[in-house]
Amino acid sequence: MLKLVIFDWDDVITRGSTDAYIKCYHEAISSLGVNLDPEEEKRRIVAKWGSPAREELRELLEERLDLLDEAEDRYERTLMGNTFIDCLSLVSDGIPQMLERLKEKYTLSIATGVNPRLLKEKIMPKFGIPPVFSQIESVYDVPDPEKGKPHPYMVEQILLNQGVKPEESILIGDARGDVLMARAAGVIPVVVLTGHLKEQEARTLGVNYVVPDVTHVEALLSTLSLPEGQGRINGERGRF
Length: 240
Known about the structure:
The protein is α/β, with parallel strands linked by helices. The protein has two domains: 163 residues, Rossmann fold; 69 residues. The chain contains eleven helices and nine strands. A seven-stranded parallel sheet has the order 5-4-1-6-7-8-9, with helices on both faces. It is globular.
């Protein structure tokens, strides 16, 4: 029986984060007089995508690591301003209401690369996201940079703290790292097509459950929560 639903955030609940992060990193380093070629700047950001901000900035400041501490401080201040949040929009209408309904049936948690303070203080209030999440695990909480996605650390922490078995859980994500993280933790991956992965790419990764966007997850969850033998949890592919 399904008990726990873990959500990635970027491109699952809100979209626009890719441009938002790039703008914040650019503002942080350019304010210190570091001006990379735009293509090179983007290449370096993508090379460390999903890593903690300090690791991203380390890559960007490869030639000026003496500026790393100041750049990290400026990045965090930029992140908590308007630059990031002004780039975002909800993936689909009705997400807050859907989350309220799901909370009545499941434990809801988040495993994300988003700064948890930014998420709680700025993003959730802006989009009317209700306080339905029992736990938020972020790369900011990870003690070792090597334990960010696709390492299962964040998911394992959620399973441990919520007292739920991996086989009673799913993780909803949009990227390869989400799928690998879920698999490494023994959790069923579900892919939404509002982010990095296309359907064929998700199928190639062996993902059985693919949905157009997160609002379609509700119907999928109803099926996965059926008693054993009545649902589609035993490997049959589904698109809801």
